[in-house]
Design a protein that fits this description.
Blueprint lengths: L2 H9 L8 H8 L14 H4 L1 H31 L5 E4 L3 E4 H27 L17 H18 L5 H13 L2 H6 L22 E3 L17 E5 L7 H10 L1 E5 L8 H5 L5 E5 L11 E3 L4 E3 L6 E3 L5 E4 L8 E2 L1 E3 L5 E3 L16
Antiparallel strand pairs: 1-2, 3-4, 4-5, 5-6, 6-11, 7-8, 8-9, 9-10, 12-13
Helix pairs in contact: 4-5
Bound molecules: FE2/S2 (inorganic) cluster (FES).
The site of FE2/S2 (inorganic) cluster has 12 residues, from loops.
């Protein structure tokens, strides 16, 4: 060690040793050989600098106290509705502005004081914590097993069969209380998810214009949303029923439709599918006309409307149910029945 280093060591406060790491390594063959020697900070070797840091930290904490008092005073002093022009925010409530500023200063000053304290005055000597084998030696393991066996014997767990068996019974039964609480989730849906308001002869109402939908309204490349006729948009029933009955309609060239049933259930290439995603029921809204894919925005399930709306990507487990449609005497699109299977996730309703 050089004489210069020795002179530095003499000036260090107790507990601060410029060669601390090296001294520890010298006596510890397992110490990390890469741990650098401690470099003293100015506060470690100059008591006046340490005092300055101390005053700075105390000043920040005092500033925080003052800001907190100012926060409380603002709360009492300023009415909620009084505002003023404060550059660059414009007209703002004086109360909200002063509460924000004073609380911000109070919290910032505590944080800044703590950081300055840690960086300049608390010990910054790096200490290596060496790893030791974590497996217990055989004699310790044997002792633990012996203690466990002794404890089990003393508890009478094996001997007092009545207590043991009733305890197992109690532990097995207690989770049933959670099952009973399921009742509070509401009544079971029973058959309500199996059917929708769609039925033979119900006209398709354009949800945009609220007029009956005609085949000529459905142009290639567009995505049209429809609901069954007779549903009042402002009624409570609408909220309940539209979640099952919402329909999306596209026009596809008949020779591009790959699925035979889809073609049979369409009208001149106009196909109608449930708008409710079969994953967890989000409404589908994105249509790519080149590929006839629709995308659910929630988890990106993608369905091919030219191929029976089968799932081609994402977590949905089923194709979108199709509604069979035709045209009535007035030339409007109408349903030829309900969906053939439950719409949406319908986890327990599908066969
Ligand atoms: S709800 Fe449609 S992908 Fe999840």
């Amino acid at each position: 060690m050089s004489s210069q280093e020795n002179s530095v060591d003499e000036n260090l406060p107790s507990g601060h040793d410029a060669t601390h790491g090296e001294v520890e390594r010298a006596g510890d063959p397992f110490a990390d050989p890469g741990l650098p020697a401690h470099k003293p900070r100015i506060q470690d070797i100059d008591e006046r600098a340490a005092k300055r840091s101390e005053r700075t930290v105390a000043g920040l904490f005092l500033l925080s106290m003052v800001a907190t008092v100012a926060f409380i005073a603002s709360f009492v002093a300023f009415p909620v509705d009084k505002s003023a022009f404060i550059f660059p925010f414009g007209h703002v409530s004086i109360l909200h502005f002063s509460l924000g500023v004073t609380l911000g200063v109070a919290l910032f000053a505590i944080g800044a004081g703590a950081v300055h304290w840690a960086r300049t005055l608390m010990s910054d000597v790096e200490v290596a914590d060496d790893r030791h084998p974590i497996e217990a030696p055989p004699e310790v393991k044997a002792k633990v097993l012996q203690d466990f066996a002794a404890g089990a014997a003393e508890s009478g767990f094996g001997r007092r069969k009545l207590i043991r068996n009733t305890m197992f019974g109690a532990l097995a039964l207690v989770p049933l209380s959670g099952v009973v609480l399921l009742r509070d989730l509401g009544p079971l849906p029973e058959k309500k998810l199996r059917s929708t308001l769609w039925a033979r002869g119900k006209q398709l109402i354009n949800m945009n214009t609220m007029e009956p939908l005609r085949p000529e309204d459905v142009v290639t490349g567009s995505l049209t949303f429809a609901m069954p006729e007779g549903l009042d948009q402002h009624s409570e029933e609408f909220q309940k029923e539209i979640a099952k009955a919402a329909l999306m309609i596209v026009r596809i060239q008949p020779d591009e439709i790959k699925d035979k049933q889809e073609l049979d259930w369409s009208h001149q290439g106009i196909v109608a599918f449930s708008k409710i995603c079969t994953h967890v029921g989000c409404p589908i809204s994105l249509y790519e006309q080149q590929t006839h894919h629709v995308l659910c925005p929630c988890h990106q399930s993608t369905f091919d409307l030219s191929d029976g709306a089968r799932v081609i990507f994402g977590p949905a487990g089923h194709a979108l149910p199709q509604l069979r449609i035709g045209v009535n005497a007035e030339g409007n699109l109408e349903a030829l029945g309900d969906f053939a299977e439950p719409v949406g996730p319908a986890f327990w309703e599908r066969g």
